[in-house]
Amino acid sequence: MNKSAYIKLVNGSAQTEITLAEVKKLFEHYQHMTSLTGQQLGWDYKAAAFPYTMEEKEQGGIPYLLLNGNQTQLYHYLIVGVSQEEETGLHYIQIVLPEQATHGDLAKANEFCKYLAKRLKGELHLFNGRIIYYNPRK
């Protein structure tokens, strides 16, 4: 697949800058929320909602999160990084679907993108090129 989605922190977002550590905390919060839902339902919803392990990696001096799939038939891996646009100075989160990504990875990546964009009130640029605005537009 080898596609990317972006969550841009524009004017009106909950914050204007983001670090990889903050993204990792947002994913941990997502896992906590899904584990609480699982307790209410009586099954391990967290494992189904977040079927990845998170590893902090670095390549060429650029840090990123590698989400490795726990269920190799359904999920391979996703790559998550943060950066800043040179022209506008906007900070953004990038989620990359590598070539080996499955349709399960795509579905989970879309779900994670929507969660992050909603929490940050950002501008979500999906893998298919469409844009969802989670911030109040003036």
Automatic annotation (TrEMBL):
Q: Which SUPFAM superfamilies does its entry note?
A: Rbstp2229 protein
Q: Which InterPro entries match?
A: DUF1885, Rbstp2229-like_sf
Coiled coil stretches, renumbered: none
- The protein in question is named DUF1885 family protein
Species whose genome carries this gene = Laceyella putida
